Predict the 3D structure of the following.
Amino acid sequence: MSLLEVKSLKKVYKTRFGGQSVEALKNVNFTVEEGEYVAIMGESGSGKTTLLNILAALDQATSGTVLLDGKDFSKIKENEVASFRRDNLGFVFQEFNLLDTFTLEDNIYLPLVLAGKGYQEMKATLMPIAVSLGIEDLLKKYPYEVSGGQKQRAAVARALITQPRIILADEPTGALDSKSSDELLSLFADVNRMGQTVLMVTHSARAASRSGRVLFIRDGEVFHQLYRGEESDELFYQKIVDTLTLLARGGERA
Ligand SMILES: Nc1ncnc2c1ncn2[C@@H]1O[C@H](COP(=O)(O)OP(=O)(O)OP(=O)(O)O)[C@@H](O)[C@H]1O
């Protein structure tokens, strides 16, 4: 069984006042295996955010199914969605989404606090993660006292701390300079090597070239996918750029 199965996923946004409806996802099908690192690319408006919102259980599909460990998202009761999300999914956003009035440490603890864990357990869980992300000396600082790259590392720690089944990242390098982006991508590669499954939406071919597989979305469907196999980042990057060019030209499936 795949970790994540997305089948015939469709999302139609109904506009208010009887205007035209928008078919953001037409028919999306793919699976993600445990331990994979998958990037999702596509032009603006192709449906990436819509897809991610459904995978994050923040929005519901019009039809089709999403299964995580065989559990059907549409069967999760409304009052269980928040705990399902907390127990199974980790999130990393472009804008970090850290609370400014909390220290980095308290930001990272937040999902565990919400899950009702005690302080000693939280601390024991945090330390190895903080060390592996190189933020152990920054934990008492506030988000406005650290750099963008450090903020994003704290956000990754917050995503990892619940040991989620999958990390969903939305443009995680979008607000970072190139050095911090490279560091973050190396970090994702490291956590993935340690077995963490990662699904990342990105506009950046450079970011996608660090993943193991890239799905290209066009007009609400998976148009094409590339597997890295044994290729180097550089060769994989070139193939991604070529595919994006093909997509932009509206070309046929490779
Ligand atoms: N809440 C909404 N109501 C109506 N239409 C929407 C809504 N959200 C998105 N859409 C439309 O659905 C389509 C897909 O949008 P989506 O935001 O998923 O694309 P995207 O690939 O994430 O784009 P970007 O890369 O610009 O973030 C677009 O045509 C968009 O205008």
About this structure: The radius of gyration is 18 Å. Helices lie at 48-55, 81-88, 104-114, 119-133, 148-160, 178-193, 205-208, 233-248. The domain at 4-97+164-248 is CATH 3.40.50.300 (Rossmann fold).
